[in-house]
């Protein structure tokens, strides 16, 4: 992969990881990922971020096609997570930079990851601007978007925003630009990334978007640290608007049903819940957790205003996959969802109580009582599951009209 010139003397020098499937140890990246790093050539040559450690040599090779590595004057680390700073020590050793810039919180992260004694590290203030020559770099702290150390680097002369993890996507495609790829695939990748990484920080997203407007950043190019670059003004506007939409989490007229099952009784109930939703003209996605990874289910939630979870009672609790799914979802703090639960039991039947409590913890309104059936669902149980779907569907449809 060759370096790519985004603008005159500004290059993508990152790396693509086509084979990465386990992203950060807890979510999936079915299309691989990209570690983006950028080089600004000016009176001071500035490298923005690095790559995962295993891609260090590939990045160095790419950078040296544009500039001898020893000519890099400054390294800016917008974020210290190892997929961006994994090659930092490797690059520092080869560049011997005059300065390494990071946020104040970045200093702590950097010291936690590396032996930085002897490194020329300088923590920058929020809003501080440095000169690289013809171009300048303004640093904007984006604390908890998604780490305490995260910050943006903005080059006003080029209207270029280097945005760290914000606005990223896990896509290794051979393409560099968002306008080069199927739009539906792009949107899916944005939602997948947002719902598995950024979602808990939605309040910070809204704050950052407002701050960017207040500071009159007005980027025309948005260059995230993963995936494709939004190079046209309309693409930059699209991704900023998309993030506002994702952060607001307004109700969507679609429901997510996820479940696990032992002897298929809970699965039969899931089918009836789906039929009930259909009666209320609310579409749904039904996901058996044995077939879908928790990050895939979480991505689906992006388009859904209701979550209905099914589990039989097992050892007085819920089945492990359901428990794991709820734990994962709760940590990602979805907002504005309706909830509901169903499942079979043999002798005690506590699963629905556990699921309902977990949904309460996510502030999900549960307008319909849980549906439970003893062993195999009878006609009355199937009708109750249908009614669960129909009633939740009706409330959701109303909410989407408001
Ligand atoms: Fe892409 Fe927070 O790492």
SSE order and pairing:
Blueprint: E1 4-7, E2 10-12, E3 15-17, E4 22-23, E5 27-28, E6 33-35, E7 38-40, E8 46-48, H1 56-64, E9 74-76, H2 82-85, H3 88-95, E10 99-103, H4 104-113, E11 121-124, E12 129-131, E13 136-141, E14 151-155, E15 160-162, H5 183-198, H6 202-214, E16 221-223, H7 233-248, E17 254-259, H8 265-279, E18 283-288, H9 294-301, E19 306-310, H10 320-331, E20 338-345, H11 351-361, E21 371-374, H12 379-401
Parallel strand pairs: 8-9, 9-10, 10-11, 15-16, 17-18, 17-19, 19-20, 20-21
Antiparallel strand pairs: 1-2, 2-7, 3-6, 4-5, 7-8, 12-13, 13-14, 14-15
Helix pairs in contact: 5-9, 6-7, 8-12, 9-10, 10-11
Bound molecules: MU-OXO-diiron.
Provide structural commentary.
This protein has 402 residues and is of the alpha/beta class. It folds into 2 domains: 4-248, Metallo-beta-lactamase, Chain A (4-Layer Sandwich); 256-397, Flavodoxin domain (Rossmann fold, 3-Layer(aba) Sandwich), CATH 3.40.50. Helices cover 36% and strands 21% of the residues. The chain has a 7-stranded mixed sheet with strand order 1-2-7-8-9-10-11. Strands 12-13-14-15-16 form a 5-stranded mixed sheet. A hairpin with a 4-residue loop joins β14 and β15. α6 packs across α7 (233-248). Bound molecules: MU-OXO-diiron (FEO). MU-OXO-diiron binds at residues 79, 81, 83-84, 146-147, 165, 225-226.
């Amino acid at each position: 992969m060759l370096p790519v010139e985004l603008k005159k003397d500004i290059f993508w020098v990152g790396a693509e990881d086509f084979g990465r499937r386990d992203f950060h140890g807890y979510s999936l990246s079915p299309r691989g990922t990209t570690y983006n790093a950028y080089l600004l050539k000016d009176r001071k040559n500035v490298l923005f971020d690095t790559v995962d450690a295993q891609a260090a040599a590939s990045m160095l090779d790419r950078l040296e096609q544009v500039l001898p590595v020893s000519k890099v004057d400054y390294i800016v680390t917008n974020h210290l997570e190892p997929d961006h700073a994994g090659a930092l020590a490797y690059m520092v050793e080869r560049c011997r930079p005059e300065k390494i810039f990071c946020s104040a919180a970045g200093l702590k992260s950097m010291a936690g990851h590396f032996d930085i004694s002897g490194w020329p590290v300088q923590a920058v203030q929020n809003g501080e601007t440095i000169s690289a020559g013809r171009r300048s770099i303004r640093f904007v702290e984006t604390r908890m978007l998604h780490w305490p150390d995260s910050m943006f680097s903005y080059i006003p002369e080029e209207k270029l925003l280097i945005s760290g993890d914000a606005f990223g996507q896990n896509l290794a495609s051979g393409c560099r630009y968002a306008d080069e790829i199927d739009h539906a695939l792009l949107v899916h990748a944005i939602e997948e990334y947002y719902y598995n990484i950024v979602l808990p920080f939605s309040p910070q997203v809204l704050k950052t978007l407002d701050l960017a407007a207040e500071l009159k950043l007005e980027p025309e190019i948005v260059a995230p640290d993963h995936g494709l670059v939004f190079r046209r003004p309309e693409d930059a506007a699209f991704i900023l608007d998309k993030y506002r939409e994702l952060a607001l989490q307004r109700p969507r007229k679609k429901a997510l049903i996820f479940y696990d099952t032992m002897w298929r009784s809970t699965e039969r109930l899931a089918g009836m819940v789906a039929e009930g939703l259909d009666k209320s003209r609310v579409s749904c996605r039904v996901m058996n957790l044995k077939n879908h990874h928790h990050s895939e289910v979480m991505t689906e939630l992006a388009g859904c205003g209701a979550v209905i979870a099914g589990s039989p009672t097992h050892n007085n609790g819920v089945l492990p996959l359901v428990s794991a799914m709820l734990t994962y979802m709760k940590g990602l703090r979805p907002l504005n969802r309706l909830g509901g639960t169903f499942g079979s039991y043999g002798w005690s039947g506590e699963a629905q109580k556990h699921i309902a409590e977990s949904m309460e913890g996510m502030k999900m309104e549960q307008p319909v009582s849980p549906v439970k059936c003893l062993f195999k669902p009878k006609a009355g149980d199937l009708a109750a599951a249908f009614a669960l779907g129909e009633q939740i569907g009706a409330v959701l449809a109303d909410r989407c009209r408001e």
